[in-house]
Amino acid sequence: MGKPLEGIKIIDFTHVQAGPACTQMLAWFGADVIKVERPGSGDVTRSQLRHVADADALYFTMLNSNKRSLTLNTKTPQGKEVLTKLIKESDVLVENFGPGALDRMGFGWEHIHELNPGMIVASVKGFSEGHHYEDLKVYENVAQCAGGAASTTGFWDGPPTVSGAALGDSNTGMHLAIGILTALVQRSQTGQGQKVAVSMQDAVLNLCRVKLRDQQRLEAVGYLEEYPQYPHGEFTDVVPRGGNAGGGGQPGWVLKCKGWQSDPNAYIYFTVQGHAWDPICDAIGKPEWKTDPAYTTAQARQDKIFDIFATIEEWLADKTKYEAVDILRKYDIPCSPVLSMKELAEDESLRKSGSIVEVPHPKLGKYLTVGSPIKFSGLQIDIKPSPLLGEHTDEVLAGLGYSDAEIAEMHEAKAV
Ligand code: CAO
Prior knowledge:
Layout: E1 9-13, H1 18-28, E2 32-37, H2 58-61, E3 68-71, H3 77-88, E4 92-95, H4 101-104, H5 109-115, E5 120-125, H6 140-146, H7 170-190, E6 195-199, H8 200-207, H9 209-221, E7 252-256, E8 267-271, H10 277-283, H11 298-302, H12 305-316, H13 321-328, E9 335-337, H14 341-346, H15 348-353, E10 356-361, E11 365-370, H16 393-399, H17 404-412
Parallel strand pairs: 1-2, 1-4, 2-3, 4-5, 5-6
Antiparallel strand pairs: 7-8, 8-9, 10-11
Helix pairs in contact: 1-7, 6-8
Bound molecules: oxidized coenzyme A.
Protein name: Formyl-CoA:oxalate CoA-transferase
Enzyme class: transferase
Catalytic activity: formyl-CoA + oxalate = oxalyl-CoA + formate
């Protein structure tokens, strides 16, 4: 069976992480993604953080699988001619250059739209068009600071903290993929392409939606009852950093398990769901709390929630995180071991589901990557190795109608 995006041709002008994460996903779903890279060097991540000399770095291979690579100097006349031909026969152009770079290259939206009215031009920028910071170049952590994640992450007595998850990069790429697919559906109705843009600030902010909820609640009543600052600490007029507190209506915390003194990840996340209070009491050996009015309601528990967590930690002291979760799962308590990257890499279930995949690579040998987090009943996703720099240059040029002699001339002129 064919893949759903087969027949969709994408000019992939992306680099680093935000854009490549988007186009990689579209390639998994069957699009023909042609990664356009500068001759000689290519995407900067090919050489960043290498662990095997002369082989593409994992940073590149893990974000560019299933694509083809075309080297093209788009600042030469031949390069511009090739790009013009490609635009005329492609469906989508995705880019995450610094602000204005595509215009400076001579391929602004008006020109592309003129060349191909059905073309969808999808962009990632740090800030949205018209924003007072629209001229800024942006990387991951900059976006996390700009989008509200850093000011609300970490502990109240420490500085703003960024997450290890790529909220600014890959998250923005996922938003852009949704935008592109939506524009493709709209094009099937109207025949017209359009511009699709996602700013990294907006994509982070979208994930910080509940913190904007909290800002408004704070302004209305002066406190946030689910934060550790309540009721014993102080609130200012901005949402504070809440450590590991649960973000919704269920209090939760990261709790120590057996071995925490030497293992930095010997912890579980424990959630106190209101309606699961009785099973919690049974699980941790405190049946008397089930009927004690000082504990029976969420409100009654609020001022002593950290004492409750301390009691649970006492119960956890002789249990590993895995043993603890095996007990708690029987009581239907939402919880998980805190898993290290090593544990995730070795997790049999993730291997079986295709969420962690081993990929062969001509220069790196085998490497692990994260497969599709989206599972389909009618689509099998095969993760193929990322292309070597320029691996498909001649093939793409021949597909555009260039003869062998013309291709050789372009190599000679260093246009490809
Ligand atoms: N041929 C010729 N020139 C090329 C080319 C090619 N194939 N590919 C890129 N270039 C040129 C661009 O045209 C641009 O030229 P000018 O600036 O002279 O017009 C130049 O390369 C540099 O592009 P850039 O601004 O994108 O690169 P940078 O390394 O200075 O900045 C980044 C990198 C990521 C900060 C910037 O691209 C950016 O802010 N992007 C938008 C936000 C984003 O996606 N950030 C996330 C990256 S993941 O952490």
